[in-house]
Amino acid sequence: MKNPPAFQFYPADYLADMNVRLLSWASKGLYMDLLCYCWREGYIPADSSAIAMLCGCHDLAIVEPCLKLFATHPDDPSKLVHLRLIAERKKQVDNAERKSTGGKKGAETRWNKEKPISKQAQKEPDGIAIANPLGMPMAKNSSSSSTSSSSSKNIRPSFDEVLFFCQSIGLNRIDAEYMDDSWKMSGFTNNKKPVKDWQAQIRNWKRMQYLPSTKGMAQINKPTQPRPLNS
Fold first, then answer.
1. CA-CA distance, 2 to 48, in Å (whole number)?
2. pTM score above 0.70
3. Residue 51 domain-assigned?
């Protein structure tokens, strides 16, 4: 598959990322340039001097904070990758493959439907279902073609996908293990209802400070009660 020409940008996630908010205005502009380079090439150089030449910015005080938002390439330490971009690229590839598979199945169904049925097949009991497929009611539990195109966000992800997404929004491995264990125990439900968007649930639990790495923030932000004065 060709490299996707564009990636989805989520303003809410961008504005909620504390690491991005701490960047200077100049570094934020450079960061957007680096995201574009990383999406197009699959990586950016790990050397800050090379980044300075690439983007025309020779102020390391602007360049180096941006590089902290990228991760070292697992196979080449001279390169940096962006975990969120990798996740978005995988999602696009998976969606394209799913649509391609669904299109091929749809074409096969139309082809079989349009093929002429022999008179012998029409007379045989097994030929009735082939000759008149629309005469049979669809089973209640069977999935329609629209199900195959539904988003993978309502399908329980693997632990690697959970870890990947958690790291991309500033969480850690313990948070990923906490989410994965929670879904194992609940049968991939939230408040006894099937999970519709697992990424949205993680972001929400992060905001609500339910995750291990955020529970300490709840104690820090908790207002202290005034001590009573001794009479």
1. 29
2. no
3. yes
